[in-house]
Amino acid sequence: MPLHSRWSAEQIPPANRPSWQVLLDEQHGIVSLEQLRSYGHTPDAIVANVEAGRWQHVFPRVYATFSGELARPALLHAALRYGGRNAVLSHHTAAEEWGMLPIADRPVEITVPYTSSAISQLPMLIVHRSRAMPYIAVETTPPRTRTTDTILDLAVSQPTPRKAMMLIVDLVSRSSVPLRSMLGCFLLRPPFRYRPAIRQGLALVGNGLMSALEVEYQEQVEDQHGLPRGSRQTPFEVDGKTLWEDVTYDEHGAAVTVRLDGRASHATAGIAFRDRRRDNAAELAGRARLVYGWHDVQSSPCGVAEEVRRVLVREGWDPTGSRVVTCRRCSEGS
After folding, report:
1. Is the dihedral of CA 266, 296, 287, 247 positive or negative?
2. Domains of the chain (ranges plus CATH)?
3. Per the confidence metrics, is the pTM higher than 0.85?
């Protein structure tokens, strides 16, 4: 973090402050009212610049020293400047900065100490409060919540327990955040809201369900339709390399592979080549394989289950004595 990136007038003596232009460069043209006054800008001068359209008022006591639309770095800095010295990016905004979620057109989200006077400034800014600022913040540029706390905060903000569980599974499995770190964060800062659902999501990841799609497949296709639970992340040797199949049913007497295509990285050339070699290896080994995406499992789990059942039986699975489950969707004819 730059030396003067979050200074206040009381912190740094005038002789040690950066020049006006250096300050603007470091803060992407964003300044607080306190900083303006410390650099000699009178209230009348500030009003004159805003009324003339040279500057613009972004949030209470925060100004942009330029006209026109605020670029993302300027907007993030304006939000942090409004939140105060200890404010950090959090929730969706922190997830975007960490690369967990794509950048989207939504309000900036920050977290401030519980005693802060900052409040949400809709539609541009959402302010959250925390009593655990020393534990959740990390001094990146710009400052944000830790990866583990970002995921936990996002889960707690979901509208339902199931969505909280799915988000935990999806983000933990797609990010580089170790499961051990997530469990440590959960134990250190156990959420009051959705605690059982979040615990279940972490347990699912620990049991090898590496994406939200795999959770849906297990629950909506296998469990709801009396199908056997397949093995997850089964290793296969292809061209001297170990590749992993999402779901296999060999332990149930059927050489069947189900691939769940729910990861954006499958679109890259390297992954496409890997999948082609995997397909060829499966064909040469006489393995049956089925491929389903998120839309298939979400919109038509009954149809997916019927296809999997037919292939399992064809390849040797004996359904005698299997679990009898009546799927609500099937019974309703959907």
Report:
1. positive
2. 14-145 (no CATH), 148-207 (no CATH), 213-332 (3.40.960)
3. no
